[in-house]
Structure formats: C-alpha cells, structure tokens
Amino acid sequence: MKKWIALSLILLMMLNGCSSQNTQPSEDTHNNNNGSMTNSSDNQTIDVPNTKELFAMDTYMTLKVYGDNSSKVLDQCEMEIKNLESIFNVNDTDSDIYHINSRSGSVVQVDQNTAAVIEKATDMSEKTDGALDISIYPVLREWGFTTGEYSVPDEKTLQNLLQFVDYHNINVNGVNVNIPEAYAIDFGSIAKGYASDQLVSILNENGISSALLNLGGNVYALGTKPSGEKWTVGIQDPTNSTDNICIVKVSDRAVITSGNYERFFERDGKKYWHIIDPKTGFPADNGIISATVIGKNGAECDALSTALFVMGTDKAIKYCQQHRDIDAILVTKDKKVYLTDGISDSAEVSDGIEYSTIARN
C-alpha cells in the first residue's frame, strides 16, 4: 500500500479511498477527495490550477495544471491515460499485454507505446543486471499479487517458474513483439512512470510550464509553482505511515518510490511484499525497505526504484555512484537514509534520522 503526505503551506493533500501511498506532492490547494473526476473552470487567475481527478491503472490520480488553456489540456491528458490503460492492462482481453501473453511463442503486432515501454524496460534490465525484469509476471501471479488470492509458493514451484523469467528472451522489432511460450510480461514497474512522461509531452506541446501530476503516488513536478518556488514532495517513513522520513524540493523531475509497505500480505507472522527478486522468486529482502528515484524521465525512475530496491544497499549505492543522471533516497532496514549528492542540498531528513550522502565524482 502507498501513502504520500503533502507538507507545503500547511495544507494536506489526501486521496481518500485509495490504498496508502509513499510519495506525496505538496500544494497550496486542496483536493475534492471524492474519488470522482473533476476539473475546475478555465475562468480563474493563472496561479490557481485546473484540477482533474480520475481512477485509472488501478489507482487514483490527480492532475493539477496551471495556464490559460489548462482545462482542454487536462482533457487531452485524461484521454492519453485511458488509452495507455487500455493497451497496458494485463487482464483486459483487448489489451496489447494480454495478446502478447496469450499468444506467447508467436509474433504480436502492438501499439507503438507498448513497444516503447518494452524497449525501455529491457534497456533498464540490462543496465541493472536483471534487477528489473518485466517477465517476472508468472511469479507475481503465483504469489497472488495480481489477483489478491495470496499464497506462499514452495521453492520447487518458484524454481520451475523462474525458467520462464529472462528479459533477454523478450524480442521487439518495430511494433512486433515476441516472447517464448509460457512467458508472460507485465508493466507494473514502469507503466505509470511512462504515462507521466507522455503527459509531460502533452503539457509541453501546449505551452504549459507549471503542473503537478500525481499518478497514484508517482509524482512528476513540471516547472515550478507559479510563485517560482520549487515543488515540495514528501517521502513516507516506511515504518510509520503517518510521517515523512524526508522531504525534497524539485522542479522538472519525477519522484517515484518503491517500498516493502506498498502491497504485502502476512502468513504465520511473516510479511511478504510484491517486489520480487527475479533471481530467487522471493520478495526482495536485501537491506532496502524504500527506494526513491528522482530524475527527468518518469519511466526510468519508475523502473529504477524497483531495481534499486531489489539490488539491496551495497549494490544500489554503487549504482548511484556510477550514474549522475539520477538522484536517489534509499532507506535501509535499520532506518538509515542515503541521499545522492545531487539532492543533498534540497532534501531535508526528519529529526532523529541518521543519514549519509552518496558522493559521486
């Protein structure tokens, strides 16, 4: 479950009825909190946003856009989200993903967005040495994270399923996609990040320079607030859903977190979460309990937040040291916080929390 708490200007921004979320943008305005789609009139001053709320991709989303033509732009954004949802939904029999999975072993022609996400995902898999792998879907399904019918698979079952998990065997040629028989893919680790990138493109094309997009907790802060201030985003304390462990000020950046408290179940006193290590088939348990990635590309940040979580503390820190194009906030089991040096001046860690800076040459 995810919970993201707004801090800026004292007003809290909550999404009622939604599972709790782990990153929350701050704003000067208050949401309607009724779970329905809303957008305000265009007849307003430029420092008051038009807002649209909707439910898509299995989560509540809030889009706040500033500008004279923001109402029409919000309609375009909603259409884009709905379009992406229709082709990415693994359970929709008309979606690209369903067709790919149900016709494994055959070539399937897909929408260019689907092909683009697969190429981005496999590229990130390569960069992270397989810590991210969208072909993990059969294992996720066995654990029940795709259906809600949870169970703890035995190791023999998992080892059998892991035979069908290997991003190297996902083939994309233009808009033609092929996966081997018994393979299945899912975009849960990258879809909302990719969607935010598409929305930012729409906003840029329409001359919008200030917006805050919250896609179920996947935040993209476009430009700055109309006042010129950066946006403030709170990172949830993984051990306390009512507190932030850190806040960070950003502009033109995605802020995306993966944590072991987002989706989980318990059996016999043990907690099992949905972030699966592709090498073992079990929930990744390598020292990190929350990984936040901050960067210009939402899809990359979405994928990397999962990958860094899977890598564990030492490998994640090493990855961050070698990649200056992203920033990260890592929270470990012993509740230490690691911040990359690119955001150390714009982040504020909560009192009493031990933290270190990840230095990069």
Structure notes:
The structure is a single chain. This protein has 361 residues and is an alpha+beta fold. It has a domain of 83 residues: T-fold, CATH 1.10.3980. It has 8 helices and 18 strands. The chain has a 9-stranded mixed beta sheet, covered by helices on one side. Helix 1 runs antiparallel to helix 6. It is globular, with a radius of gyration of 20 Å.
Main beta sheet strand tally, sense and closure = 9 strands, mixed
N-to-C CA distance: 36 Å
Number of strands: 18
Average pLDDT metric: 89
Radius of gyration: 20 Å
Please estimate the helix content.
25-40%
Class per helix and strand makeup: alpha+beta
- Catalogue the unreliable spans: 1-20, 27-45
Strand content: 25-35%
Question: Regarding CATH, which class of the domain at 96-178?
Answer: Mainly Alpha
CATH topology category name of the domain at 96-178: T-fold
Arrangement of strands in the largest sheet: 2-3-7-8-11-14-15-16-18
Quaternary structure? single chain
**Morphology call:** globular
Number of helices: 8
CATH architecture field of the domain at 96-178: Orthogonal Bundle
Determine the CATH superfamily of the domain at 96-178: ApbE-like superfamily
What is the ordering of alpha helices and beta strands?
A: EEEHHEHHHEEHEEEEEEEEHHEEEE
